[in-house]
Amino acid sequence: MKAFIYTGGKIFPENITEHPKSGDLRIAADSGYRNAELLGERIDIALGDFDSLGEDASRLPEGVEKITVPAEKDETDTQLALSTAISRGADDIVIIGGIDGRLDHALSNLAILEAMSEVGIHCVITNGQNRVRYIRSTSTLIAKSGFEYLSIIAADDTVKGVSVEGCKYPLKNAKLSRKFQYAVSNEISGNCALISVRRGGIFIIESKDC
After folding, report:
1. 83-130: per-residue pLDDT in tens?
2. Kind of pairing, strands 130-136 and 122-126?
3. How far is CA 88 from the centre of its chain?
4. Superfamily designation of domain 134-207
């Protein structure tokens, strides 16, 4: 099952192409409800301590399941939304928002991609200006879209066997370092790019200019 999680932070609605279909689970993590509204999406579950949503929490439509959690907790609202989605059967998750604004939240949300990969759940996070995936010791195809730039960021100290095909600046069996990132601001030249990594984890980031 596919799940969409709407979290806080600025989004660019006109650039977001990921929209739920009938049968997909829709979860708003606290102020992420406002982002769901911006996109015109109906939600199934509203989750959080609702400190960020404030008085807007009283506007939740009838029929929306509300899960209230303590303000002081170990997990973020987004992490709890992920746990809820997985407990409801999701194995493919799209996170909308969460990579703009507070840097601590953004880094925490990027780490979620790595955690989801380790348990075999496909996950992508986007705010319309950036879209991020994480892969480890595998390959993936990235279709050409409205994002101008494609960057590879090493998530481990050393990442080996990185190859990029179908881009302006190809790589073949390259070694990347977390402390020296050089595979940034590439461009897809064909219909899609094939990205492979033999050993280690990488973030694949599609970006638009501001």
Report:
1. 999 999 999 999 999 998 778 888 888 999 999 999 999 999 999 999
2. antiparallel
3. 19
4. Thiamin pyrophosphokinase, thiamin-binding domain (2.60.120.320)
The model's pLDDT over 18-61, given as tens digits with 9 standing for 90+, comes to 999 999 999 999 889 999 999 999 999 999 877 665 555 566 77
**Which has more confidence, 133 or 71?**
133
- What gap in Å lies between CA 133 and CA 6, rounded to an integer? 17
Name the fold adopted by 2-128. Rossmann fold (3.40.50)
Question: Which amino acid makes up residue 135?
Answer: I
Q: What are the tens digits of pLDDT across the range 181-191?
A: 889 999 999 99
The full set of domain ranges for the chain reads 2-128, 134-207
Characterize 23-42 residue by residue with b for buried, 16 or more Cβ atoms within 10 angstroms of its Cβ, and e for exposed. Answer: ebbbbbbbbbbbbbeebebe
Cα–Cα distance between 136 and 203 in angstroms, integer?
9
Q: Would the CA dihedral through 114, 117, 121, 125 be positive or negative? A: positive
For β-strands 65-68 and 45-48, DSSP reports them as parallel
